[in-house]
Amino acid sequence: MKVLLITQHFDIVGGSDVMVHQTKRLLQQAGHEVEIFAARGPDQPDDGIYPGADHFYRPSPTTIGRFLYSGQARKRLDALLDRFPADVAHLHIHYGTLTSSILAPLRRRNIRIVQHLHEYRSFCSVYTAQRGGETCLDCRVGSYFPGLKHRCNQGSLLRSLISTSEMYVADRLGAKSAPDQFLAVSHFQRQMIVDQGLPADRIATLYNPVDNMFFPDQIPDMADRHGVLFVGRIEAYKGVFDLLDVAQTLPDTRFTFVGDGSARGDLEQRAQGLANVHILGKLDRADVIPHLLGHRMMVVPSRWHETFGLTAVEAMATGCVPIVTRMGGLPEVVQDQTAGFVVEMGDKTQMRTRISELHSDDGLATDMSAQAHLRARDTFSEDQYLGALLGWYRETAQ
């Protein structure tokens, strides 16, 4: 089978990019032909094959037009399809860089389209289903004007007008009608998108897989694992300040933050004088593994509805026990009091209690570590993901 993976970045910038490259590797290992079509990075020279993209930091008439519709992306995809006649196009995040202009060449050639959903962009113009730090469901599939009314894009009327317009333009170009199958990454995400207007019979759930490199040959003994780990973007909506507040009340427990983001400077400033808090910055995924193996638990304190929770699953694979908030797909991934703990969003007392239990009770930590590892292996393996994905490819081709 010839599979074309379409995404916004060649480099790994976020979780969706990890999934694209992992999917490519798995498909190739299974004997399928795979190509990636993505926008060039800002420092990548124009090779005449891949389109450029305007990174939307300072809107201008030119960048606004390309944000809505990229004629270059459409033409270059057409040229790629001349030499690589794909059986299936597997779309990930592509709007804003490649834009929905790419749908026309796929439809004209009758190529089957699978659209993977990594956030809530199906109905939300800023993709998060949040406004002012709270869940917002004012917009629905096909009705996006509340995003303009509330100035959801950084509080800017202009940016909100552009992002709202992009939603309507994309729908006119086939963003909802062209895909033969939509894939959500959790049952929670799927249900939210269905509730906001996407027909239930067009969207299924396919869990993200955990990379095999996160499964150790042997789970380290809990006596050799200490402290609390956070891995992710350093942003307020990720709950990092809640976790820092808890760290202040547990001076004998080590807290390690791995990641980067716009709130890192604020986090570092607030952590000054806390000897038990270590902020490491962003690490390559392979370099995170020793930290997962060395820490007893990982906390995912999110204040927004995570669509899945890949970092929690990666922790589970290593036997690092997850503590997650009851937000989005996180409880679905972890299963409270089996493979980890689920706490209420923003409940720092409950978070502190669960951290203290795992810190002080080796038996509890060992049992949960084993259950977490088994759940990651039995539910989120690469083999399960690949088998299900190929099933969807074949079904759309019928």
Q: Overview of this structure, please?
A:
This protein is an alpha/beta fold and 398 residues long. The strands form three sheets. The chain has a six-stranded parallel beta sheet with strand order 2-1-3-4-7-8. A six-stranded parallel beta sheet has the order 11-10-9-12-13-14, sandwiched between helices. The model has no long low-confidence stretch (mean pLDDT 93). Strand 13, helix 12 and strand 14 (341-343) form a beta-alpha-beta unit. It contains 15 helices and 14 strands. Helix 8 crosses helix 13 (348-360) and helix 11 crosses helix 14. It is globular and about 60 Å long.
How do you describe this structure in short?
This protein has 398 residues and is an alpha/beta fold. The protein has 15 helices and 14 strands. Strand 7 (181-184), helix 7 and strand 8 form a beta-alpha-beta unit.
**Low-confidence sequence ranges:** none
The total strand number stands at 14
Report the CATH topology name of the largest domain: Rossmann fold
Which superfamily, in CATH terms, is the homologous superfamily of the largest domain? Glycogen Phosphorylase B
Number of domains: 2
- Helical element count? 15
The average pLDDT is 93
Cα radius of gyration in angstroms: 21 Å
- Choose one word for the global shape: globular
Which sequence of SSEs, written as H and E, runs from N to C?
EHEHHEHEEEHHEHEEHEHEHEHEHEHHH
The share of residues in extended strands comes to: 5-15%
- Main beta sheet: 6 strands, parallel
Under the CATH scheme, the architecture of the largest domain is: 3-Layer(aba) Sandwich
End-to-end span in angstroms?
14 Å
Structural class: alpha/beta
Spatial order of the strands in the main sheet?
A: 2-1-3-4-7-8
Helix content: 40-55%
Query: What is the CATH domain class of the largest domain?
Result: Alpha Beta
